[in-house]
Design goal:
CATH topology: Rossmann fold
Keywords: ATP-binding, Ligase, Metal-binding, Nucleotide-binding, Queuosine biosynthesis, Zinc
CATH class: Alpha Beta
Protein name: 7-cyano-7-deazaguanine synthase
Strand content: 5-15%
Pathway: Purine metabolism; 7-cyano-7-deazaguanine biosynthesis
CATH superfamily: HUPs
Number of domains: 1
Order of helices and strands: EHEHEHHEHEHHH
Largest sheet: 5 strands, parallel
CATH architecture: 3-Layer(aba) Sandwich
Shape: globular
Strand order of the largest sheet: 3-2-1-4-5
InterPro entries: QueC (IPR018317), Rossmann-like_a/b/a_fold (IPR014729)
Cofactor: Zn(2+)
């Protein structure tokens, strides 16, 4: 197994950027892979490109336009507004069916061609919007499936799986990239960099986590 190289599933948001720098501390060579699934806010991909260029990370954008066709939702359709609050009895309309499964599968194919075993993704079961494809049981299941499907040993790393947003901010702080994550990333479902719109679920989670982090660790 090649323990010197890794690939990060990279969106240019808070979580994946924290994971990118986490990987850079642990692996000699890190490659970032982003996906164009015709998401509403192409700024996401521009942000990912800018971060990779600035911090000397090899970056690839893969075309996954079919996902947009199969799974219409508020992140891919201009006529569907993002839920301001997550529904109690159903998944929020920002959930894209199959997205993490497809992302990790395509990254797995990409990784094998490059002789890379380590894949890093920023999913978290501890502090998320109820997305089933962010759960640890799903990641472990897919890791086994990819191993069997390609007769190749993958290790899917999830540095954020068991920590909440405040602890994710603390990780960025410990890695020395707090300002990078705070100012240069795009997490907002409405396509606004940094602190975002402050109204969508992603912004509420991000900003609430930062407030807790600030109170707990910076004062």
């Amino acid at each position: 197994m090649n323990r010197e190289k890794a690939i990060v599933v990279f969106s240019g948001g808070q979580d994946s950027t924290t994971c990118l720098f986490w990987a850079k501390k642990r692996f000699k060579e890190v490659i970032a892979v982003s996906f164009n699934y015709n998401q509403k806010h192409k700024l996401e991909l521009e942000c990912a490109k800018e971060i990779c260029k600035k911090y000397n990370v090899e970056h690839h954008i893969l075309d996954l336009g079919l996902l947009n066709q199969l799974a219409p939702n508020s992140l891919t359709r201009v006529d569907i507004k993002v839920d301001k609050d997550s529904p109690k009895d159903s998944l929020p309309n920002s959930f894209v069916d199959g997205r993490n499964m497809l992302f990790l599968t395509f990254v797995g194919v990409f990784a094998k061609q490059r002789g890379i075993n380590n894949i890093i993704t920023g999913v978290s079961q501890s502090d998320f919007s109820g997305y089933p494809d962010c759960r640890d049981v799903f990641i472990r299941s897919l890791n086994t499936t990819l191993d069997l499907a390609m007769d190749y040993e993958f290790v899917i790393h999830t540095p954020l799986m068991w920590i909440d947003k405040a602890e994710t901010w603390k990780l960025a702080y410990d890695l020395g990239v707090l300002d990078v994550v705070k100012k240069e990333t795009l997490t907002c479902y409405n396509g606004i960099k940094g602190d975002g719109c402050r109204e969508c679920p992603a912004c509420k989670l991000r900003n609430r986590g930062y407030k807790i982090f600030e109170e707990k660790y910076l004062k």
